[in-house]
Design a protein that fits this description.
mainly alpha, elongated
């Protein structure tokens, strides 16, 4: 029964993210990973897992957003270089 619930929850989570932008997906993924890591870390070190999860989610969301900005910048640089290369090679 627990396996069915876990599979259903995972399926709903995946389906719920299908209409999100890359920024939203990366921010949510960072928050989710951070919440789990913060909760587990706090429980291991005998802290309050709830506050660990909240702090981890905040740090994870900020990290996911920063990673998205990095990837967008990287794509913009690639596209600018591609256009510059295409322009200079087509002029010959």
């Amino acid at each position: 029964m627990k396996k069915i619930i876990a599979i259903t929850a995972a399926s709903l989570a995946i389906a719920g993210c299908s209409n999100m932008s890359n920024t939203e997906q990366r921010t949510l993924s960072g928050a989710s990973i951070g919440a789990v890591a913060g909760g587990v870390g706090a429980a291991i070190f005998h802290g309050n897992p709830i506050w660990g999860a909240v702090g981890g989610a905040a740090v994870g969301a900020a990290s996911g957003y920063a990673y998205d900005a990095y990837k967008k910048n990287q794509a913009a640089e690639y596209n600018a270089g591609y256009k510059a290369g295409k322009t200079s090679s087509s002029g010959n």
